[in-house]
């Protein structure tokens, strides 16, 4: 697939995320009308791996509404969020202002981040939880990350495990919600085209641009792309918990997150790398 075709698909994704934004702003899923608690989107092991953030420059790529970006500012970081959607960035700025937090938001495609951020470099780059699937080329992504990091800087990717994306409910009337392996664990070649009127949150149908494209990436693809860009892999974690119940049969844990009953399987992974 050519670069022009990828660019066209990413423009479709940009329009789709613009259309999703008002639905997400009003959703119970994000709960922005309630007490804002950005830390609820983070597992305890994420803070262990990230370490002290006070007075550090932290960039959150593909930040959407900035609900996680705010947590970095709360921990004393100079936080910057970047997203492809103008509607999302506008909403994120408003959310941060209402929360009284100083966060800079920039609208740009990830691949244009170096230019959009005027060659600024960061101590930490954070991304994940449903971000990498909207990028067609992880080698180009990794090269961009390397340019965004200061020497010794950290990249932390916290992303849905490929196994999670392979699981699906049994497609039969009156079933028990049993999850089966229905999709390729290692992903498929090329883009997955979607045309959906509803998003992963509650709320009404998306008005307007409903078309989007995703690319499935295995952990090996992410790891090898980062190694190829000159980064050093520091740690890899697999977690059996998610910050929300993706399926009805999930059970709440002591952490407040959710996991499947036995047998437990990895649903999230954390990849820490350094430049």
Automatic annotation (TrEMBL):
Task: Set out the biological process GO terms recorded for this chain's protein.
Answer: antibiotic biosynthetic process; methylation
Keywords in alphabetical order: Methyltransferase, Transferase
Query: Does the entry feature the keyword Transferase, yes or no?
Result: yes
One MF term in GO for this entry?
methyltransferase activity
**Domain Methyltransferase type: from-to ranges:** 59-155
Q: Does the keyword Oxidoreductase apply?
A: no
Under the heading InterPro entries, the entry gives: Methyltransf_12 (IPR013217), SAM-dependent_MTases_sf (IPR029063)
Coiled-coil annotation: which residues? Answer: none
- Sorted alphabetically, which PANTHER family does this protein's record hold? TRANS-ACONITATE 2-METHYLTRANSFERASE (PTHR43861:SF1), TRANS-ACONITATE 2-METHYLTRANSFERASE-RELATED (PTHR43861)
According to UniProt, the name of this protein is Methyltransferase
The protein's organism comes out as Streptomyces lacrimifluminis
């Amino acid at each position: 697939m050519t670069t022009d075709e990828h660019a066209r698909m990413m423009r479709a994704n940009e329009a789709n995320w613009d259309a999703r934004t008002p639905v997400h702003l009003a959703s119970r899923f994000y709960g922005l009308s309630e007490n804002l608690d950005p830390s609820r989107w983070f597992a305890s092991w994420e803070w262990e791996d990230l370490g002290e953030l006070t007075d550090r420059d932290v960039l959150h790529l593909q930040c959407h509404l900035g609900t996680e970006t705010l947590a970095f500012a709360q921990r004393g970081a100079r936080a910057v969020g970047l997203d492809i959607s103008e509607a999302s960035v506008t909403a994120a700025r408003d959310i941060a202002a209402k929360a009284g937090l100083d966060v800079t938001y920039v609208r740009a495609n990830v691949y244009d981040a170096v230019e959009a951020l005027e060659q600024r470099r960061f101590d930490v780059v954070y991304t994940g939880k449903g971000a990498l699937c909207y990028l067609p080329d992880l080698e180009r992504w990794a090269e961009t990350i390397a340019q965004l990091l200061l020497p010794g800087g950290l990249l932390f990717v916290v992303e849905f495990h490929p196994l999670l994306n392979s699981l699906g409910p049994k497609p039969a009337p009156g079933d028990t919600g049993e999850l089966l392996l229905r999709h390729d664990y290692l992903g498929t070649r090329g883009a997955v085209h979607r045309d959906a009127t509803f998003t992963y949150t509650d709320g009404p149908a998306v008005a307007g641009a409903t078309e989007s494209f995703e690319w499935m990436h295995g952990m090996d693809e992410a790891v090898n792309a980062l190694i190829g860009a000159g980064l050093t892999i520091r740690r890899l974690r697999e977690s059996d918990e998610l910050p929300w119940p993706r399926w009805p049969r999930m059970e709440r844990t002591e952490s407040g997150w959710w996991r499947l009953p036995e047998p437990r399987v990895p649903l999230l992974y954390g990849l820490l790398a350094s430049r």
